[in-house]
Amino acid sequence: MSVSPPTLSPAPSIAMSTGEPEANHLSRRRLPRAILRNPTALAGLLILLTFVALAVFAGVLYPQDPLDMVGAPLLWPGQDPEFLLGTDSMGRDVAAGLAHGARASLLVGAISAVIGLFIGTLVGAIGGYFGGVVDDLLVRLTEFFQTIPTMLLAIVIVAIAEPSIGMISLAIGVGSWPTIARLTRAQFRSLREADFVMAARSLGYGDARIIFREILPNALAPIIVTASVMVASAVLTESALSFLGMGDPNVVSWGNMIANGRELLRTAWYLTALPGGAISLAVLSLNLVGDGLNDVLNPRQRGE
Amino acid sequence: MPLLSVESLHSGYASGHGILRAVDGVSFHIDKGETLGLVGESGCGKSTLGKALLRLVPSSQGTIRLDGTDITRLSRRALRPHRRRMQMVFQDPFGSLNPRQTVHSLLDTALKVHGLGDRDERRRLAAEIVQRVGLPASSLTRFPHEFSGGQRQRIGIARALVLQPELIVCDEPVSALDVSIQAQILNLLVDLKCDLGLSYLFISHDLSVVRYFADRVLVMYLGRIVESADHASLWRAPRHPYTRALIEAVPSTAPERRRIAGAIAGDLPSAVQVPAGCRFRSRCPLADERCAHQEPALRQVAAGHAVACHFAEPAPFQNIEPQPRKTL
């Protein structure tokens, strides 16, 4: 070393300052608290949790098959304390139907979102990370699937295969992954040039480790937000399918409850209004949770 | 044999208008235990050069030899053992650390990937390196956002050191830090170099930093080396008008000091359409007819002093008063 720095003291060991962390950053532990402080997100979360609880405990609350005739037909809500929300034209308990229907709707929503997330994240991550020919091919594939309306694809798949919860979820998932793929690809394209990814490469990390351990955790926030909206649209698609009579005929769903009540709309409107309200409320709650997550996870986009 | 030798390296990016030649035929070497400074203004290609050396951006032509081994075209797998020997410290202490990993995980993963040590051994190594860069061992369980800029840069240095490399490319390691913190980090780098026998390629646009740090200095302009000299003679007698202008631009403690007329003005020309002749001629106070047609080659003008300028000899400038060394 030809240069000596006489005026400089040797490197001091810096005492750890416990100074305030960045306001924007949210660690895993503080995420729940941030959601609780956001009133819309909290409202959405509470409604959603109510539906989830209803779906989980449907078998305990209404142990009987919701498709069984249990009482007199067309009882109005409140008319008979045994059937709080009334009965339909076949004497089936509407409340039991709503509870079991929540199970079908949320299950389809969750499974299809998981399928869509899995395919979309994988396709987007690989395309965005590697670029080049691989990316071109995957973008074409994504665009191809994006041009097919999810509803149409679901109808075709369900019409060919038997209409079960699993098959409906698969159909919706296969139709909805392009959104996730495009989002993930955009995230990966910007993050792959980040310094911490450069550092990982200079340390000799493999591609899989860089994709899943370095980039993906940092790309996850907008993907999670989109996923919650995806669940909402899957719930809608499932309801539409079963309204059209293409749902699983052995499972009560909000969609087929509406379909059954449709003919009695003028005399017993509650038969369509109750499951319709349930759909709206569930979709609303998922959107509120999505918005709340967006506020919490992307603080820079918060309205000024 | 030099630790690292680079011959006519080219590296660039495809842009909308053509190929941006960020590094356009650069040759140099770094000896063991040497600190080589690389200076130039923003956009001259110095960061790209640093990244090309580590194979983080592809090189289109030329060779990079690490201890005699040509690593320019090695496959990923074959490159991995060589990766250990060269590491990088980045400019931005915020962007260069994965915000989702604790300090321990940042250091531990590197050791794990290279199959070094078992769990306990790795834990010990991580604790050791963290203390070596002046952070308490308790930092290991924390996330990067819990640290200040200077502390984060220490973590970045710890990560570069954890594989025990011989050469560290420092890409503007202090330019994002407060001046008071800069001195601490520079001192840390000096100490580490002495203790661990490291070599540095020290990239900076700040001459006062390089002046304090480097044994030998390369001056880069628009993808090429325009002057290369040992520390002392570069400052005493800069031969290239660009070097001269850079030195002039260092804020002086003596404001009455004479400035050269027509000091550098304007911007760096486009690296997509490199001007014919001398690259610097559009901004050069000395440029004439010859500079428009003939590109000056980098040639030896004195022992260990090479310049790419038609007017390099005899020295076109009178010696400037050696300034007292800046204390940071």
Automatic annotation (TrEMBL), chain B:
Q: Which GO terms describe its molecular function?
A: ATP binding; ATP hydrolysis activity
Gene Ontology biological process: peptide transport; transmembrane transport
> Where, if anywhere, are coiled coils annotated?
none
What topology in the membrane does the UniProt record assign?
Peripheral membrane protein
Q: Which domain of life is it from?
A: Bacteria
- A single Pfam family it belongs to is ABC_tran
All residue ranges annotated as the ABC transporter domain in the record: 4-247
Cellular compartments per GO CC = plasma membrane
Tell me yes or no: is Membrane among this UniProt entry's keywords. no
Protein keywords: ATP-binding, Nucleotide-binding, Transport
Q: Where in the cell is it found?
A: Cell inner membrane
Entry's family note: Belongs to the ABC transporter superfamily.
> Sorted alphabetically, which PANTHER family does this protein's record hold?
D,D-DIPEPTIDE TRANSPORT ATP-BINDING PROTEIN DDPF-RELATED, TRANSPORT ATP-BINDING PROTEIN
Give the protein's recorded name: Peptide ABC transporter ATP-binding protein
